[in-house]
Amino acid sequence: MRSDDIRELNIELPKLKNGKNEFRFEIGKKFFTHFESSLVEEGRVSVILDLYKSLNQLDAHFRFEGEIELLCDRCMLPFAYPVIREQRLIYAYRDSGIQEDDSEDEVIYMEPKNHLLDISQEVYDFICLEVPIRKVPESCKEDCPNNPLNLLKDKGIIGEVEASEENTDPRWEALKKLKSDN
C-alpha cells in the first residue's frame, strides 16, 4: 500500500527539534488511490501539521482545508464538497510512563525504537470523517436533470398525484376538521 506518492507523509523523528515543528502537505488523487475501497477517490486538500515535540510524546495539531469530489446519492453526478477540519492527536512512547487506556481516542502509542512516523492513515481517516452520510448537493434539489422529482414532473406523474389529493374522500374531511379543532 505504501509507495513514493505518500512517502512525504513519513516524518523522521530524530530530525525533529524540541518544541514546534511545522509541516505542509498537499493531498491529491494519487494519495486516495492507496487505500482500498476508498470513500474518496479525488480531491485537493492542504494539510498543515504543527507537531510539538517533548521528551516522551509528540502533540500533533492537524488542519485540513480543500475539496473532495463525491458522487451525488440521487443522480450519481460528481460534485465538490468542502473539507475544513482541525484535529489533535498525541503520539506517546509506550515506555514513557503514560498509562495506556483504551478510552483515550486521541492518544496513539508508538514503540520507542520507531524512527519514522507515518501519518498517512490518520490523514486519510480525518478526511473521510468529513464525508457526509447523505451526499446530495444543494444544486441537485432544483435543477439536476437526474433528480427523481424532476423526472416525475417531466412525465406528468407528480401533477396527477397533486390533483388526486384534491379529490379526497369526504370522510377524511371530517377527521381533518377534528384534528384542526384540537
Strand order of the largest sheet: 2-3-4-5-6
Radius of gyration: 26 Å
Compressed to H and E, one letter per element, the order equals EEHEEEEEHHHHH
Largest beta-sheet details: 5 strands, mixed
Distance linking N and C termini: 64 Å
Secondary-structure-based class equals alpha+beta
The count of helical stretches stands at: 6
Outline = elongated
Helix coverage percent:
25-40%
Q: Indicate the proportion of strand residues.
A: 25-35%
Domain module count? 2
Stretches with pLDDT under 50, minimum 5 residues: none
Please tell me the overall pLDDT: 81
Would you count the extended β strands for me? 7
Tags for this model:
single chain; 182 residues; 5-stranded mixed β-sheet; alpha+beta
